[in-house]
Amino acid sequence: MRAASTAGPSFRDRFELSHRVRVGITAAALIAGGLLPLFVDGGGGFIDDATVALAYVMMALGLNIIVGFAGLLDLGYVAFFAIGAYTMGYFGSLFHITANGGEGVHILVAGPAAQLPGLHFNFFIIIVLAIAATTIAGMLIGLPTLRLRGDYIAIVTLAFGEIVGRIAINGDEIKFLDTRLTAGRQGITPVDKIDLPFLETFNSLELRPWYWTAFVLVLIAVFVNFRLRDSRLGRAWIALREDEVAAVSMGVPQVKTKLLAYGTGAAFGGVSGAFLGSYLNTVNADQFQFSFSIFVLAMVILGGLGSIWGVVVGAIALSFINNRLIPDVLNDVPGKIGLDFDLTELSFGIFGFLLVIMMVLRPEGLIPERRRKIELKAGIEGLVVDEDTEKQP
Amino acid sequence: MAMFEVDEIHTFYGNIEALKGISLTVEEGECVTLIGSNGAGKSTTLRSISGLTPPRTGDIRFDGQNITRTPPAEIVKLGISQSPEGRRCFSRMTVRENLDMGAYLRRDKGIEEDMDRVFHLFPRLLEREKQKAGTMSGGEQQMLAMGRALMARPRLLLLDEPSMGIAPILVERIYETIGEINRQGTTILLVEQNANYALSVSQRAYVLETGVVVLSDASDKMRTNPEVRKAYLGG
Prior knowledge:
Chain A is an all-alpha fold.
């Protein structure tokens, strides 16, 4: 255990990579990521897990804006996954089967979906709708938290996630203009496959196009994240996170800045949700559990709060641990040592254990953000600005 | 008409009335100080002015414009910026990044020029330009907080307890600089427990006690006032 990281240059300092090396590693990883599908079975389990992992990366990047950049602890991120997925379900399935007198509405869709009743919109349109819906939802959830700090924000967002989850489960009994609000636990299925111009409609036997679509979406998400971080808005988020009173006295508009963090962060969840709705071919209330919010938060913390590449790595790692390592690779371990239980039931125990190990060995995350690294290295003393020096009654 | 006027403000923290009708004025180019002991309402007055805790009743006017209910960001834009109590630098940002945050609302071309001005006023900050604010001494952080407030190019600068928790030698330096800033034309409203320094740099002073102004006078007269001497200047 290398807990004594305050004394002198530590082990990991000596492995601090130069800028050039880091750029090289990043480029190599991106190329490897892009070419990966060429070397694996296009219908296999690995590419399936990899595609889901990329969708999770998008969510983690979104949550990172809220928690990592702006410092607003959000425990209800699953709500945005749900809203994005339901947008996909509403506008790309048989769900509204009576729409247009049973003829269906088709906007820029080809392939099998063009013949079916219900609403069938082009995937791009659905993405835009999902972004709009989640941004609005993100800002709405932001509103009641504006006057709150820290833990209280977490409680409100937690409640919001839970409310959306409950509505998803019970929505099949809520009728609105003759249609149900959701399909409850039964789920909306089938969902339209992604249908891009010049390409065949995606199918579930050949997963490479799905992977590449997710890969491009992640690239866009990473790019947007970097641009946001280095923008005026990004600086305002960091200032608010560091010291709210000081930021406000410098003229950072608190309400607008926080709401923009919630809104943009949520939008990534929406895009990912819409993608997953189509990819998993179902929009099912059981997907939207509180534990999923924690799962995404764990990715962000594991990777390094506020660090874009860190979050990407954290999300890939946790998603592979969850979808592959635990159920496939390690699942027979308990049986081998004479115990009778299913390892997947312990998933969250394992994540928790991982996080504890991380907090001991590398509290700033796998790839730490510059500022946080400084904070944790320098120790607490001297860095803490008095939390609230208000002495007045 | 005074450039800046506070008229009978009552500010509350919950149900507790911290300011019980404070009135004061600041003329263009002046340096005015509020002195008083702990809990007198000095910082609350500044917080009321900058919009952090707006008063429940009463008016605050800047250039004749009522800014009582104006949000903090708008107040900064109008030309009032604050170096808050306890400094509150962004500890994980560098000195330069902190100063940049001071100019957050500005989009004009004079930002670099003002940065040079701040570095000229506080050469220590230039030496530490790339250092994280959190790793500097209290005095240096105070300089940074003041520099950051100046980066907004304020017409009225609010300084909250610039001597708090700082080595005496640095307090002296900081007060020299406050005088310099004032001579360069920035109007200053200074809140201070250390009445000696505050009265030496200001032209007029108000004494606050439990949320009301009990005395106001020219600073040099205040220094010879026996009651003030006894209560605030250590005899």
